[in-house]
Amino acid sequence: MMEDGNTLEELKSGFVTVIGRPNVGKSTLMNHLVGQKVAITSSKPQTTRNRILSVYNDNARGQIVFADTPGIQQAKNKLGEYMVRVTKSAIRDVDVILWMVEPDVNPGPKDIKIADQLGNVGVPVILVINKIDSIQKDKLLIVIDHFSKLYDFAEIVPVSARMGDGCNELIDIIFNYLENGPMFFDEDTVTDQPQRQLAAEFIREKALHALDKEVPHGIAVSIDRMKKRKGKKIYDIEATIICEKESHKGIIIGKKGSMLKKIGTNARFEIERMLDAPVNLSLFVKVKKAWRDSDYLVSNFGYRIEDDI
Questions:
Q1: Stated pTM of the model
Q2: DSSP structure string for 68-95
Q3: Residues 219, 284: Cα–Cα separation, whole Å
Q4: Residue 236 pLDDT class (50, 70, 90 cuts)
Q5: What is the gyration radius of the CA atoms in the chain, in angstroms?
Q6: How does pLDDT run across 88-129, given as a tens digit for each residue?
Q7: DSSP states of the chain
Q8: Are 29 and 128 in contact, with CB atoms under 8 Å apart?
């Protein structure tokens, strides 16, 4: 028996994939729902590259495993092809799909493409209209009407992932579509991402925030060393930011190392919060020309499709 009186057989569980165009707020939504930062966010394309699992636990009702995916887009290189495969694989074998959109008055070509790709998936598709804090109610009704004509949604839920509005209602609706089943993760689990991967992503996030628009597309982060000092509660981390051009390397380092220092300082804050311990972070920068078009390097930097199927 559970503390609330429910038996394991009475609890619900299931996998929920979150899809949508790039930068509609998928990662922000997942971070809010699980109450912890497990996915990086930025306004730049290709922020999310991997499938990231986040676990929502409710002792009274059960467990929801969310899968955040790269935004559905056209592949332009090997990394882009990887991201497309990750998104397509995440649509298979799930219990519910959340299609997240911004409150545009009219669905755009990318939205129409997503509707075509979904087709008849055989599971409930819930339309989640994000950023409702930025639109008037009468315009929201127009958005709902236009998207309702695009696809036969099981539910339509307006939310503000940033403010948290509508998120509790979204959880309630998801549980309505789940069946009784076993918990897939321990109740203390929040994400499937190892700490090394999260540390690399936090560094990449701060680089995304700090760097010019043309640079972030071509960067990756590799954790070369991550070790807790013997007998002390402090971590030593060495990481390398990989870029594609010598000119980008200079931008990342900055004048007298100012940009690299800024990225490191901001990333260290997030990593220390994750580890709940002080961190000594050392950053380096290397050039790997056209790494996004190399199957070997794409895989070497942690983007392996076999991990996401």
A1: 0.73
A2: E-PPP----SHHHHHHHHHHHHHHTT-S
A3: 12
A4: very high
A5: 20
A6: 555 667 899 999 998 876 888 888 888 887 887 889 999 999
A7: --TTS--GGG-EEEEEEEEESTTSSHHHHHHHHHTS--S---SSTT---S-EEEEEEETTTEEEEEEE-PPP----SHHHHHHHHHHHHHHTT-SEEEEEE---SS--HHHHHHHHHHSS-SS-EEEEE--GGGS-HHHHHHHHHHHHTTS--SEEEE-BTTTTBTHHHHHHHHHHT-EE---SS-TT--BS--HHHHHHHHHHHHHHHHS-TTTGGG-EEEEEEEEEPTTSS-EEEEEEEEES-HHHHHHHH-GGGHHHHHHHHHHHHHHHHHHTS-EEEEEEEEE-TTGGG-HHHHHHTT--GGGG-
A8: yes
Amino acid at 7: T
- CB-CB contact of 28 with 71 (8 Å): no
**Tokens 């076993």 sit at which residue?**
182
The amino acid at 116: D
